[in-house]
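Final report, results section. Input specification for complex C-07:
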Amino acid sequence: MRESLIASGPIWFRYASPQAFFPLAGTLARWFGAAAAAFCCLGLYLGFFVAPTDHQQGEAYRIIFIHVPAAWMSMFLYLVMAFWAAVGLIFNTRLSGMMASALAPTGALFTFVALWTGSLWGKPTWGTWWVWDARLTSELILLFLYFGFMALQAAIDDPRRADKAGALLALVGAVNIPIIYFSVKWWNTLHQGASVSLTGAPTMAATMFAGMAVMAFGFWFYSIAAALMRVRCIILERERASPWVSQTGVANCAGRIA
Amino acid sequence: MLATLRCVIYRDVLLAVRRRSDVFTVVLFFVIVVSLFPLGVGAEPALLRAIAPGVIWVAALLSSMLALQRMFSSDHLDGTLEQMLLSATPLGVIVAAKIGAHWLISGLPLVLIAPVLALQFDLSQDYLDILVLSLLLGTPVLSLIGAIGAALTLGLRGGGALLSLLILPLYMPVLIIGAGAVESAAAGLGALAHLSLLGGFLVIAAAFAPWATAVALRISIE
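Structure output:
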């Protein structure tokens, strides 16, 4: 009854089944991977060769083309993860939990890249690797939230329980993110004033913004491609006992992952 | 419903009173952690005065987290928790009672002993009431948020370290605002804003955390 209801429903319900989604994810991952490569190449070209040199920071500012898109993606991916977590809790779909766990490593990667490039940028411009600025601190806490999510899922052997527990944690984290951001911001202004302000930067040349936007799209498409590749692996790992995995000729791959 | 609430609180507090050493371990941990800081950073009075609220808050955070694992584990081991899940009373109410009892056992003693430790740090007596008030508002939030983590990590391997990884990032706003209360008062800005924010955290956490903990418990037990 339930099966037929899902099969006869709209097309997006059809793809809630891991079996139906698996080939689609492969196709999409290829296209988004290609788009990510193209956009990143174009964005880096714009950033390194077209955008003008900054009159205050010289060439050092060019790390912005990696740094800012990575920071955007790190926050955006947490929200996407929390979205899939919520969908998984509400509709009890298996694929949603798999999507959430597939997104977490990419989100953590971008958070780390944002922190790393930020400290590389901070050394020549601010003269220090790290300041307890509100944005830096909340980005660091975001990294801890990603690690907590992954550690919780890794500690639970039953995948369904891991999905649900991780989903609840992701939602609690998502509720906390604005609270964390504003308390850190307030703490920071109380402590040291606006000695380092990221918001007071001069308005940006159009080519700089274009480079950043193109890079952001490139990172976005990369995230989609990476998450879809990862979700394919998770599907194979969890469904390796079911007949369709051996029928589609990916059994060898599933065996290797297992 | 209120009878259940009272009954669960009474039971948990009674259990703790019968096993006093558990309560004292947490309080002693709190005292020892706070005492470590002067040994580590030096006994300069001006420095100690400056770090006192932060040190006491960090120590309170760690000790309340230390006590969290016990919130559900013994009930889980002897099967009481499953009966609670099956009970006709909404699970959120029972969980709220357990969190309240947990705060009475492991949060309130910290609040009461904190002024003595603050005196060791030469914190001015004018700010002791603000410190106590901030802890009084803040430690229940720690118990409430921590309960979600305790329920999620119930029966998992590496529970303690995992729990701290999950919960400490969520504790940070409370730490920032709580420790900021005394500093703000010392800077002449008054602590009302910080205390109001802590009160706000408490209201939000009290409204949502028992419910989220109940969901987490059902996920862990099913």
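Chain B has a mean pLDDT of 90. DSSP finds nine helices and no strands in chain B. This concludes the modelling results for the funded period.
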